[in-house]
Amino acid sequence: MRINRRSMLLGGLGTALAASPTLAQDITFFRIATGGTAGTYFPIGGLIANAISNPPGSRTCADGGSCGVPGLVATAVASNGSVANVSAIAGGSAQSGFTQSDVAYWAFNASGIYEGRPKVDVLRAIANLYPETFHLVARKGAGIKTVKDLAGKRVSLDEPGSGTLVDARLILAAYGLTEKDLKAEYLKSQQAADKLKDNALDAFFSVSGWPLGAIAELAATTGIDLVPIDGPEAESLVKVYSFFAIDEIPEGAYKGTAGVKTVSVNAIWATSSKQPDQLIYGITAALWNPSTRKLLDSGHSKGKVIKLETATQGLGIPLHAGAEKFYKEKGLIK
Predict the structure, then answer these.
(1) Which residues form the signal peptide (predicted)?
(2) Which string of b and e fits 139-169 if b means at least 16 CB within 10 Å?
(3) 250 versus 60: which is more confidently predicted?
(4) 188: closest CA among 1, 34, 12, 27?
């Protein structure tokens, strides 16, 4: 009997599937919308996607338990940031995404930047990940020591669709400024860093877990000043907008750059209420698996502050039912 190559391949696959039921199971694809590749969302998203994925025939943890969600293939996808990610979740083009706690709150309640627009009432939280720190980065020699010094300067407020742009406007307003008082530009962090390095920009806002790669490179090669966002203006900002918190960038976070007082919001991993409860329960459990802890601790400096004990704090939106079940079992919520 003549056996061709295709028959052999198909036969081999059939044998493998029969021998290993896990290879025959359905594959579930799960996108995590993140941010620009130069920011913190993207690498953190990659670590989490790796941790929760467990396609057929994949690994087991060192302790013998299964890593990730069986049959799940998760991918971190670059995006324009928080606002764009909320839209992607609402529209179904992404199964989940990272968003700032303020943007999530406004979207869910149709307030703030979403006032007059339909509520994104399908938005649900999987976990609070880490504080997102406001960086106001100035070119050395630009004469910018306070937020008020931005008047008349060439300043990037981040790209349209990003949560950074929204909050940069709030910060300016707290100090009595608007973007009309600046020579405003709207660039991604990496583009802004490149222009600042070329002396074509004086300062830029960026919201990210520190250290941010684009800023670290500037600090090491060009030299920068971090501008504080503090004083009565910052205290008023936190009082009016409860999703803000007082924060700081410590000494040594960036080479040769003094630490500063600033403000922050939380980075939230969000999904849609339409995602199956069992799936989100499994993803939440995989996020807090001990093997994921090792990945987060070794994969990125901000990964170390992603902790189970703070997972349900400062969310701004309801938990997904699947995540809520997990946290109730762990005693984090009643």
Answers:
(1) 1-24
(2) beebebeebebbeebbbbbbbebbbbbbbbb
(3) 250
(4) 34
Report the distance separating Cα 293 and Cα 271, nearest Å: 21
Last residue of a domain, one of 213, 231, 266: 266
Q: Which tokens go with 279? A: 């799936």
Domain count, the chain: 2
pLDDT, one tens digit per residue, over 126-152 is: 999 998 899 999 999 899 999 999 999
Chain position carrying tokens 């995404």: 97
How far apart CA 289 and CA 308 sit, in angstroms, is: 10
* Residue 11, in any domain of the structure: no
Last residue of a domain, one of 266, 290, 308: 266
163 and 312 housed in the same domain: no
pTM above 0.85, yes or no: no
The answer on 117 and 79 residing in a single domain is yes
Does residue 151 sit in the same domain as residue 260? Answer: yes
pLDDT tens digits for 109-126?
998 788 899 999 999 999
Same-domain status, 281 and 304: yes
For residue 211, is the peptide bond before it cis, meaning its omega torsion is within 30 degrees of 0?
A: yes
Between CA 253 and CA 257, with CA 255 as vertex, the angle to 5 degrees is 80
